[in-house]
Write a structure and sequence with these properties.
The chain is mostly helical. The protein is built from four helices and no strands.
């Protein structure tokens, strides 16, 4: 059954999206607009489209590469993002230009 996959995907994406730049951008746009429903619909459609592209791309790539290679690439990608975030945080703390 696909329900466990559906629930784990929902929880993972929901938790990952909390407080991210997309949510903050939506908050900022909604704060400057008198039409929060339009902002919600626009941001929801954007997230759905981005997720669709990711799911389609993931499905296509998974037919070309073995699962362990995909997991390794994802892990390396997250590691690079984490290191960059640490370096940016360190540079901001020291007053350096990024």
């Amino acid at each position: 059954m696909f329900l466990p996959l559906l629930i784990s995907t929902f929880l993972t994406v929901f938790l990952a999206e909390l407080g991210d730049k997309t949510q903050l951008a939506t908050l900022a746009i909604s704060g400057t607009s008198k039409r929060p429903l339009a902002v919600f619909i626009g941001s929801a459609c954007a997230l759905v489209l981005a997720s669709l592209i990711g799911a389609l791309a993931g499905g296509s790539v998974s037919s070309l590469l073995p699962t362990n290679i995909l997991q390794l690439l994802a892990a390396v990608g997250f590691l690079i993002i984490g290191i960059r975030l640490l370096l940016i945080d360190e540079a901001l703390g020291s007053g350096e230009e990024i």
